[in-house]
């Protein structure tokens, strides 16, 4: 027999399958190493009999043994090189985390998003600008050693804003707290007896949040339960996501309702299971991308949950995805639903308009153009139920649709890039017209709504009582856009008046309508305090440090005292209280010291003008992101006037500084 016949490639006919292939009972090509072991990147161990054969047939000479070893080494190096090429190609095309496995029941979580954009009406942008301007103000204050209190107050303000923005820039891309998502069909279901009792209860006592947002979704939940627990075919991931969402919100309301007939211990385990299943389902690729009614509704409910968790940019992600699906499915057009069964057509309309309202509110708060174009929508509004208990809720939703339309116009006509180039006279006309529309909706429609016979009359009455705070906040934002750029930055007397009225309305509402229980506090924080902007506080702060009035300072103190009641509810409410508290301390020092500000002129009508002297000192094109890393060189001639002008100037409205998670540059530790 020749030497070539003893080489590993030719001796395979004498070899048995390797130990690993024999154990796994798969075909082995009987090479050393075999193809299966190379692909799995494990050591290929020949069987004992094969080793004995090779020992008997191996050439005795040292040179032949050396050649054989070199051959095996080269084969293994080639195998390693091939594996590295495959890994590199795989990492480029579809990166995965080292902890991920190839299990068919595991789906990669969506990657953390790139840094997001916040427009000029965003409170986050204003925070960065305010922080930079405050930093430059310190240069003069620090030059006066005698003014220790003012130095400390402004330093504290900068520190508070820095801490807020470092936290706020972290983007939350997930609702769940795990890195891998189990495929929906593998998720465990709650006990059938619990679900059966829930479905029966819903028919006679619907949960508040769903009766308000998706009343037609409650009957749809029963159909989904039947398909899930008694399947005749596999239920799509979007249907499961919607089912888990409906069950979670329903059980959560019943847990917090003492008259529901369920004890917390009875529902808590199933509620927590549905919550996690909901998160995992909605984060799947198909739920986020495939346009179906179920996926669209699930994304809307995911946006609501993200809002409750103070993850505003995640709300935008889900809302934008849902809006895209609405257009793909034609939910914005009347003609696409007229031939549907009544229940389905009404559900589609409810889903569409809820996404629309969320989008318009968030568009203004984040300073981004809405996903919806009003000129392209002819869909009918919420179907109003004949049931006197449901009718007020449907009517209120239709009022909020009108409110959302005006919010969209506020951004388009006052804060969009196109609006920035409008003459001041045109903008003033738009301000007055939009202001009248807001007042008309609230005074003539919202406050005249009869709710005594509705579901949850006390809660609905409280919601209507909060309409003052909501309206005055929006009016503050509207009148903040009315500036006179020809002579300098101006804040009108109407803007200051509405800001003061908004803060007074918040204090009054929380005193009269929010009892001392966390469930009521959560509702206020989620759907009033953080749903709208807290712009009025910042505008009133500006007024206070300009006039140095003690009564105005007292309102700032009352507002912070109010926020103390709610700071434990969420991350958003805590950040709001901390930042407002820092502004309050600065205002206290300035009012107590009667430290007047240069460059500010008050007109007879009460408006404030930040003069051109201040404007000329303001640098342009500043890198506002740099302040949180290392403060740039400060203008030694700056003072608090510069702080205000840079912050409030250039037609930049002070929107939701507590926007909660803007400039998302890194995924949070979860």
From TrEMBL:
Protein name stated in the entry: Zn(2)-C6 fungal-type domain-containing protein
Keyword Protease carried by entry: no
Lineage: Eukaryota, Fungi, Dikarya, Ascomycota, Pezizomycotina
PANTHER family: TRANSCRIPTION FACTOR PDR1 (PTHR46910), ZN(II)2CYS6 TRANSCRIPTION FACTOR (EUROFUNG) (PTHR46910:SF5)
Alphabetical list of InterPro entries matching this protein: AtrR-like, XnlR_reg_dom, Zn2-C6_fun-type_DNA-bd_sf, Zn2Cys6_DnaBD
Polar residues compositional bias, start-end: 91-106
A biological-process GO annotation: DNA-templated transcription
Keywords tagged on the record: Metal-binding, Nucleus
Family annotation (SMART domains): Fungal_trans (SM00906), GAL4 (SM00066)
Annotated organism of origin: Myriangium duriaei CBS 260.36
């Amino acid at each position: 027999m020749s030497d070539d016949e003893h080489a590993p490639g030719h001796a395979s006919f004498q070899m048995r399958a390797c130990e690993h292939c024999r154990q796994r009972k798969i075909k082995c090509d009987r090479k050393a190493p075999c193809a299966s072991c190379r692909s799995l990147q494990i050591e290929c161990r020949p069987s004992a009999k094969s080793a004995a054969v090779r020992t008997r047939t191996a050439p005795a000479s040292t040179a032949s043994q050396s050649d054989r070893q070199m051959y095996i080494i080269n084969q293994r190096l080639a195998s390693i090189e091939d594996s590295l090429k495959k890994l590199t190609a795989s990492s480029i095309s579809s990166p995965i985390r080292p902890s991920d496995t190839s299990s068919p029941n595991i789906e990669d979580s969506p990657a953390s998003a790139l840094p997001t954009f916040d427009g000029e009406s965003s409170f986050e942008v204003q925070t960065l600008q305010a922080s930079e301007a405050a930093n430059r103000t310190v240069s003069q204050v620090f030059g006066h050693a005698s003014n220790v209190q003012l130095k400390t107050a402004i330093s504290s303000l900068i520190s508070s804003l820095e801490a807020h923005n470092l936290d706020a820039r972290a983007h939350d891309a997930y609702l769940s707290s795990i890195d891998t998502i189990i495929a929906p069909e593998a998720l465990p279901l709650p006990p059938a007896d619990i679900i059966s009792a829930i479905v029966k209860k819903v028919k006679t006592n619907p949960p508040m949040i769903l009766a308000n947002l998706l009343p037609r979704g409650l009957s749809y939940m029963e159909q989904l339960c039947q398909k899930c627990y008694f399947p005749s075919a596999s239920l799509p991931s979007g249907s499961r996501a919607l089912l888990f969402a409906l069950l979670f919100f329903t059980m959560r309301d019943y847990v917090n309702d003492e008259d529901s007939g369920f004890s917390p211990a009875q529902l808590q385990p199933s509620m927590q299971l549905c919550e996690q299943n909901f998160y995992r389902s909605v984060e799947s690729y198909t739920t986020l991308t495939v346009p179906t009614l179920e996926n669209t509704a699930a994304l809307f409910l995911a946006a609501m949950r993200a809002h409750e968790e103070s993850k505003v940019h995640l709300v935008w992600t889900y809302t934008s995805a849902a809006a895209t699906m609405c257009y793909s499915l034609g939910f914005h057009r009347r003609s696409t639903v007229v031939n549907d069964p009544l229940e389905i057509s009404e559900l589609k309309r409810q889903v569409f308009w809820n996404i629309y309202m969320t989008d318009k509110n968030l568009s203004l708060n984040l300073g981004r153009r809405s996903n919806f174009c009003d000129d392209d929508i002819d869909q009918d509004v919420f179907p109003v139920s004949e049931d006197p208990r449901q009718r007020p809720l449907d009517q209120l939703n239709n009022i909020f649709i009108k409110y959302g339309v005006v919010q969209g116009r506020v951004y388009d006509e006052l804060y969009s890039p196109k609006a920035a180039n409008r003459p001041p006279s045109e903008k003033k006309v738009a301000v007055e017209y939009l202001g009248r529309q807001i007042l008309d909706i609230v005074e003539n429609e919202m406050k005249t709504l009869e709710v005594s016979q509705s579901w949850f009359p006390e809660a609905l009455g409280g919601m209507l009582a909060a309409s003052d705070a909501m309206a005055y906040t929006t009016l503050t934002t509207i009148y903040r856009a009315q500036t006179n750029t020809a002579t300098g930055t101006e804040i009108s007397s109407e803007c200051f008046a509405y800001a003061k009225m908004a803060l007074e309305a918040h204090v009054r509402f929380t005193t009269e309508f929010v009892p001392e229980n966390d469930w009521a506090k959560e509702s206020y924080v989620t759907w009033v305090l953080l749903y709208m902007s807290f712009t009025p506080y910042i505008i009133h702060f500006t007024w206070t440090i300009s006039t140095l009035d003690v009564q105005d300072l007292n309102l700032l103190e009352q507002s912070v005292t109010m926020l103390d009641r709610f700071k434990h509810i969420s991350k958003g409410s805590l950040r709001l209280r901390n930042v407002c508290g820092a502004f309050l301390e600065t205002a206290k020092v300035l009012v107590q010291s009667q430290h007047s500000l240069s460059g500010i002129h008050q007109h007879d009508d009460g408006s404030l003008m930040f003069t051109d002297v201040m404007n000329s000192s303001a640098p342009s094109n500043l890198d506002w992101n740099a302040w949180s890393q290392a403060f740039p060189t400060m203008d030694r001639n700056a003072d608090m006037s510069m702080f205000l002008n840079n912050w409030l100037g250039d037609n930049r409205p002070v929107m939701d500084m507590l926007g909660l998670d803007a400039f998302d540059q890194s995924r949070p530790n979860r």
